[in-house]
Amino acid sequence: MTTPAQALSLILARIAPLPAGLRPLPDLLGLAAAEDLRSAAQVPPFLNSAMDGYAVQAADLAQATPIHPVRLKVLGDLPAGAVSSHVVRAGEALRIMTGAPLPEGADTVVPVEDTTRGEAWVEVRKSLREGIHIRHAGEDLQVGQLLVLAGQGLRPGDIGVLAAAGLPTVRVHPRARVAVLTTGDELVDVAQQPGPGQIRDANLHAVCAQVTACGGIPMPFPRVPDDRETLRGVLRRALEADAVLTTGGISVGDYDFMKGMLEELGAQRVFWKVAQKPGGPLGFWMLGGRPVFGLPGNPVAAMLMVEEYVRPALRKLMGFARLHRPRAEGTLEDGWSGKAGDPRTTFLRVRVRREGDRLLARLTGPQGSGILSSMLLANALAVVPEGVERIEPGGAVRLHLTEEAEDH
Ligand code: AMP
Ligand code: MG
To answer: β-strands 345-355, 336-337: how paired?
Structure first.
């Protein structure tokens, strides 16, 4: 059987980022830059005022105090967006608004709060250091300055900088369109009252939400009954997507058709079954150049598999450089004991809290793979390697912090 680490590297080795294209700024949030992005402009583009006030020569104000203010002649008004042809000389001032270009001759801006406004004059009550309250051309960004690295996900702040830097379009990788198929005769729609032997389809919603959460576009397909011909048709249509996720029918039950059908359609098996608990029967195929994940039917297992394997794969497909959630060492407060001689890695759903520089983890409840409610409180997975049968209360455990952004 494939180990979790092998499974992940087998998957990632087969995935290449989707082709990049130029997209406008309003479309960029959450997408990965496909190349290093450099400023096309100097920001600010010109010397300008950082305050509403008066452009002056600081030397004029050397003696200014509240009791003996200095009176300057006002040459005119300069709103932001306008340019002045006035030259400010000794004894003169130009009324200036934040962002307006500093007029020739002036070296400093007096904030309006430190002045008294007259008819054609202004009194300044305070001396000022030369050069204060002005912003120099290029003090924020230089032409050619590196702003964003290839593979970085774009956040609102990045997009603001790109706009100021004169980049109306940017080369990015697209979101992955991900077909989500749930299978099983027992499944009914959430809004429906399940009849005898039926259950509500939790996976469709859980898995679609996970796809959205990692930046993909889920394409939910109509539920597939345990019927080979229906499955064949739906799988064919699902190949319009960039990746395919199926749940259920992947094990060795009499109605588990997924594996056989994928291979009948020409899918190349990379592996089937991972030595882990919960969720052994994960299969991974390539079909028509697309990754196909056969996830277990069990909702806890399916979601865990998406978190551990599908999410890094989709991130790689979408061009992100960082694929993996932060790893950390923590303390398992309540301890755990497993089966002796179990050759599988166990993933425990835990709630982690920080205490100083320590991470304290508690199990979220019963850890059976059918216990969906264990997902409710979880904010991390504790990973117990094969061969470890027991963790004493307060023992060390390896954590995957599943609510923090990928850091490697
Ligand atoms: P399977 O792998 O198809 O045998 O499914 C394993 C278990 O997961 C069974 O108890 C199924 O009823 C359950 N299951 C399968 N698919 C779903 C689903 N979409 N939502 C909730 N439970 C499911
Ligand atoms: Mg089934």
So the answer is: unpaired
Determine the pLDDT at residue 46: 97
184 C-beta closer than 6 A to ligand 1 = yes
CATH number for the domain harbouring residue 129: 2.170.190.11
> How many other β-carbons are positioned within 10 Å of the β-carbon of residue 241?
20
State whether 200 and 254 are in the same domain.
yes
pLDDT in tens, 57-97: 999 999 999 999 999 999 999 999 999 999 999 999 999 99
Ligand 1 centre distance from Cα of residue 203 (Å): 8
Residue 132 has pLDDT above 90, yes or no: yes
Structural domain ending residue among the three candidates 258, 283, 317: 317
The closest of 1, 5, 18, 4 to 317, measured between CA atoms, is: 18
Q: Which domain holds residue 306?
A: 4-18+174-317
Residues 151 and 30 in one domain: yes
Q: How many domains does the chain have?
A: 4
- Could you give the CA distance from residue 153 to residue 30 in angstroms, rounded to a whole number? 5
**Nearest C-alpha to atom 5 of ligand 1 is from which residue?**
297
| φ, ψ for residue 241, nearest 5 deg | -80, 170
The answer on pLDDT for 288 being more than 90 is yes
Q: Whose structure tokens read 């109509």?
A: 222
